[in-house]
Design a protein that fits this description.
Largest sheet: 6 strands, mixed
Helix content: 25-40%
CATH class of the largest domain: Alpha Beta
Number of strands: 23
Number of domains: 3
Radius of gyration: 25 Å
Strand order of the largest sheet: 9-14-13-12-10-11
CATH architecture of the largest domain: Alpha-Beta Barrel
Distance between the termini: 38 Å
CATH topology of the largest domain: TIM Barrel
Length: 693
């Protein structure tokens, strides 16, 4: 296993041979070569959110929020392992050709483990949803898959954005996220702590915003007191891109670039994504930092480079060939992930479709033949994209089904041709729907409508949502289809909570990756069964929520929401019926029997929630365990679901963790409230436990 002590010693020895200027030069993301010491140039900036990103051909898996919808830790680690294989393969080949450009290194700035606390946040689809426990578990397994378990790091993962970061995008460079001690520790830091202490993530990236007055990338509280001193973090810290410049330009906590560089460096930010650390030597001359501060940061960075085996002759990953990218096996895994991630929200019986009785299928909508609707953001480029239209067309051709296609409308404009009248494709959509036995409406968003605020180095200029509605052009399309279609299935591609009206059945496809169209066809026609579940609450209206800028968790997410959601966290239907029975608590795990009572094979997601006997417990029971079990029709199986070690723990108003006097576990296929249980048709079991405090 990796020897950090040896890597630190090597780094210390190498850095001791550098001049002051050379050490300072290595604290930038685009670190130059030091030829006299045999150190090649290295660009630290790479992305691998759901596949190797922005560096040419790579397997594109479902967007992170879709991966979360699988609720599958093993699958999560397996996917990350494939991503790191492709990252190594591309690095091995490209570095041999002297290409050490951006997006081609082995330090990947993924995963994003911020909490998706508000559905308006444009970058929420980069996360694993709204629950700290689910986010932490999936983050740990993604990091393990990325970093591997060999002598060296396969790649170096990064937990971001530390911390209390989830919009608004438009003011992120100047915003002060004010958070109380309970919410900070219970919600915003929980997943980060898990990825540091259990996942042993190699790096942590700071956030753009301030947290209780301190800029996150220069926060003594976050970076020194919590991350290093309290949690024992041993890796390196990197700033978000050009975030340190915000200290003086926007946050106004410093007056000059040297002061900003000094504030970040002194408080533990080792690597600057941006150019403010070009002023490090000025900061030294002004007495704002010491050479020791520069040396410490440089040693941490070279420790990571030695852990990656970048200068080793025995690195086991150097032999991964360039042909280990974009393989048939990786495509098959992307397909499996897409199948497991899609969520059946509603179904009046129209699904699954019967290929023997459907003679004409209409596929309509702006996301039907959209590659962008597959990709999400921070994505690579696949050579194997299968859009929803392409996947359904292939299936229909195999089964002799006629397929009619219409764009229906523009994604967000009121017409598809500038010279045409408004709604110029509605008549075509309506006539095809009238002619078809079943109509599939492919609507929603893409990363051009929800995503990251436009900034230096970012691809999109989309930002946050204002409401939970799809664009008006698409609402008019669905209204027309409801009048014209004999049977209407609404397929929504998006990465966040939406309230979409219309259809006999609704499928939430997320941004499902390169195999999304194949997965959708197999699911709609019953070749595969739906098994995805919502990793976030779907609300009816943003007016049901506090102001976007309010970082208090009161009335946010399923743990604290006081209203009735449109669809609850954990919701997801299947083509078969499951039951649970005989739950017992054994060795920090819940064992329960699950029976497939239906006529189709499927995966059941067993969800365990806890309500602690404490005034400090969340308003509603919280997730403390989950596990999937695959069952054939009529089959009974037993599953053991590991529980959160903090199941019997609550966080006080002062941010301290204390044991509760007792708790109740709820074991079922949904949250334990009547609305959630009614949607899935299964009442949860209960286990009562007293604890010794």
């Amino acid at each position: 296993m990796r020897d950090r002590t040896e890597a630190k010693e090597k780094a210390k020895k190498l850095v001791s041979r550098m001049t002051l200027e050379e050490k300072a030069s290595q604290l930038r993301y685009n670190a130059p070569a030091i030829e006299r010491l045999g150190i090649p140039a290295y660009n630290w900036w790479n992305e691998a959110l759901h596949g190797v990103a922005r560096a040419g051909t790579a397997t594109v898996f479902p967007q992170a929020i879709g991966l979360a919808a699988m609720f599958d830790e093993e699958m999560q680690e397996k996917i990350a392992g494939v991503i790191s294989d492709e990252a190594r393969a591309k690095y091995n080949g490209q570095s041999k050709h002297g290409d050490r450009d951006i997006y081609k290194g082995l330090t990947v700035w993924s995963p994003n483990i911020n909490i998706f606390r508000d559905p308006r946040w444009g970058r929420g689809h980069e996360t694993y949803g709204e629950d700290p426990y689910l986010t932490g578990r999936l983050g740990v397994r993604f990091i393990r898959g990325l970093q591997g378990n060999g002598k060296y790091l396969k790649v170096a993962a990064c937990s971001k954005h530390f911390a209390v970061h989830s919009g608004p995008e438009a003011v992120r460079h100047e915003f002060d996220a004010k958070v109380n001690a309970k919410d900070l520790n219970e919600t915003y830091l929980s997943a980060f702590r898990l990825t540091v202490q259990e996942g042993e993530v190699e790096s942590v990236m700071g956030a753009y915003n301030r947290v209780n007055g301190e800029p996150a990338c220069g926060s003594r509280t976050l970076l020194k007191e919590i991350l290093r001193e309290k949690w024992g973090f041993q890796g390196h810290v990197v700033s978000d891109c050009w975030a340190i410049r915000d200290f003086h330009d926007n946050h106004k906590v410093t007056a000059t670039a040297p002061e900003s560089a000094a504030l970040a460096l002194k408080n533990g930010c080792d690597l600057n994504c941006g150019h403010t650390y070009l002023h490090i030597l000025e900061a030294l001359q002004e007495g704002l930092v010491s050479e020791e501060d520069i040396t410490t940061a440089c040693e941490r960075l070279f420790t990571t480079r030695f852990l990656l085996g970048l200068s080793a002759e025995d690195c086991e990953y150097d032999s991964i060939p360039v042909t280990e990218t974009d393989t048939d096996g990786h495509d098959a895994l992307a397909l499996e992930a897409a199948e497991k991630s899609m969520v059946l929200l509603e179904n009046d019986g129209v699904l699954p479709l019967d290929a023997g009785s459907v003679r004409t299928l209409a596929v309509i909508g702006p996301n039907a033949d959209s590659v962008a609707a597959l990709e999400g953001n921070y994505n690579g480029t696949s050579s194997r994209y299968v859009t929803f239209l392409a996947g359904l067309r292939r299936y229909c051709e195999k089964h002799g089904i006629r397929l009619l296609y219409s764009l229906g409308c523009h994604l967000f404009k009121d017409r598809t041709s500038n010279l045409a009248q408004a709604d110029d494709r509605l008549a075509e959509a309506a006539m095809y729907a009238e002619a078809a036995d079943v109509t599939i409406a492919c609507v929603g968003l893409d990363a051009g409508l929800e995503g990251e605020e436009g900034d230096t180095g970012n691809e999109f200029f989309s930002g946050d949502k204002k409401d939970l509605l799809i664009p008006e052009s698409q609402r008019r399309l669905l209204s027309a289809l409801e009048k014209s279609a004999k049977k209407l299935v609404t397929v929504i591609a998006a990465g966040s909570s939406l309230n979409v009206r219309g259809g006999n059945a609704k499928v939430f496809a997320w941004y499902p990756g390169q195999a999304g169209g194949t997965a959708l066809a197999e699911l709609l026609f019953g070749e595969k069964n739906f098994s995805g579940h919502l990793p976030l609450t779907f609300y009816r209206d943003v007016n049901d929520l506090p102001p976007f800028e309010d970082y208090s968790m009161e009335n946010r997410t399923y743990r604290y929401f006081s209203g009735t959601p449109l669809y609850p966290f954990g919701h997801g239907l299947s083509y078969t019926r499951f039951s649970v029975s005989g739950a017992s608590l054994e060795d920090s795990a819940v064992r329960t029997d699950v029976v497939n009572e239906g006529k189709m094979a499927g995966d059941a997601l067993v969800q365990v929630y806890v309500r602690c006997d404490s005034l400090f417990a969340p308003r509603n029971p919280r997730l403390c365990g989950f596990g999937r079990i695959s069952l054939m029709p009529g089959q009974r199986g037993t599953i053991s679901v590991p529980l959160d070690p903090l199941t019997d723990t609550v966080v006080t108003d002062t941010g301290d963790e204390i044991k509760c006097s007792g708790y109740t576990l709820y074991i079922g296929l949904s949250q334990p409230d009547q609305f959630s249980a009614g949607l899935c048709g299964v009442q949860p079991l209960e286990i009562r436990k007293q604890t010794e405090v």
